Amino acid sequence: MTISKELLDELLKGVERPEDLLGDTGLMKELKIRLMERMLGAELTAHLGYEDGKEAPPGQSNRRNGTSTKVLKGQDGELPLAVPRDRDSSFEPELVKKGQTRIDGMDDKIVGLYAAGLTVRDIQAHLLDLCGLKVSPDLISRVTDAVLDEVREWQSRALERMYPIVIFDALRVKIRDADSRTVKNKAVYVALGVTRDGQREVLGLWIAENEGAKFWLSVMNELKNRGTQDILIAVVDGLKGFPEAITAAFPDAMVQTCIVHLVRHSLNFCSWKDRKVVAADLRRIYSAPTADLAEAELDAFEEKWAGKYASIAPAWRRAWQEVIPFFGFDPAIRKIIYTTNAIESLNRVIRKSIKARGSFPADEAATKLIYLAIRNFEKDGRNVREWFAARNQFAIMFGERFDA
């Protein structure tokens, strides 16, 4: 539709300043209100079957019955509308539905601000400053609570039958306990899978105060109930009780300790001036071509550093049974397991979202925000780099399990 120059000139008469056009009482807002009222009037005409100002059809009792005022909240601030009524209240407008109080994607704006880590109070202030909207905390809570329905659907969706790699990781989040009313450090566990086609997929998130074999077994059983029948490699960060739980649910899965986390744990024992040298010596261990040569490098590391950092080598030896599988893989697979770029990127996105929060009032509040962070993470691309070479290796190493 093309608007004529003459009509534009007529509309813009008296517009001399930007606020005359875009301000709270400007032409654009007034035009929006009048157009919406005109459309609502057209809807009522279609409902009643006769034009405004004309006579109703013979024998029809339902007629126009004035207007009622409704105030909508939108990106232009508050929009007071005169909504037409009918006598028997059977008119159900589509443009502005009964009970509707928001337009212009206001719900999406609120959810977007919440996903960015803003608190309810921050969202209130933001909408007031930028849009001139006074939004109640109850409205914000209702809008963000709707995310929980999406979370439940996401958490129960069907999964792939087989995942070549699943990385399990945990973050600590402060959440107020419902019973004691004290703030506790709870763990948020995330499972990030890699599909046969090299697509990253967050399989789920779980919040628990304590981890252990029983907890992890429930997670594994949930994954099985959602359709996953096999995991080729499970990468974990020394999570207590996990090896037992994973092998109970997926007997053929290969449990692999996350090398990145093991290195970071080791460097926590070092002074800053020694970290670079210690990291280089540790690299000689996990870059060894075979498990035997890696163990020899570990012996050499212990001989060199035992006097100064006695805790590092024993930590590697305690995890050695879950480190050994790493050396049986081709470099294409080792790189994916070692770098764990995907889980690190995911953790950064989650930490950025929760950074502004001192604590969460309940598990549900933390779940909403973390889920929205995951949703944003998956929008940025899900392909694993250099997957083609790794896929060929998986097909050879695992044969029918990979192709099943």
Could you explain the architecture of this structure?
The chain has three domains: 1-49 and 63-102, no CATH class; 105-156; 159-402. The protein has helices at residues 5-11, 18-22, 27-48, 106-115, 120-131, 137-155, 213-225, 242-249, 259-267, 272-286, 291-305, 312-318, 320-323, 331-339, 341-354, 363-379, 387-398, 400-403; strands spanning 64-74, 77-86, 162-176, 183-194, 200-208, 230-236, 254-257. Helix 10 (272-286) runs antiparallel to helix 11 and helix 15 (341-354) crosses helix 16. Helices cover 50% and strands 17% of the residues. The model has no long low-confidence stretch (mean pLDDT 81). It is α/β, with parallel strands linked by helices. Required for the transposition of the insertion element. Residues 50-72 are annotated as: Disordered. Keywords: DNA recombination, DNA-binding, Transposable element, Transposition.
Q: Kindly state the mean pLDDT as a whole number?
A: 81
- The proportion of residues forming helix, as a percent range, comes to 40-55%
- Helical segment tally? 18
Ends: how far apart? 55 Å
Instruction: Tell me the number of structural domains.
Output: 3
Shape: elongated
Low-confidence stretches: none
Strand adjacency order, main sheet: 5-4-3-6-7
**Overall SS class:** alpha/beta
Quick overview:
With 404 residues, the protein is of the alpha/beta class. It folds into 3 domains: 1-49 and 63-102, no CATH class; 105-156; 159-402.
Q: What are the salient characteristics of this protein?
A:
single chain; 404 residues; alpha/beta; 18 helices; 7 strands; Transposase_mutator
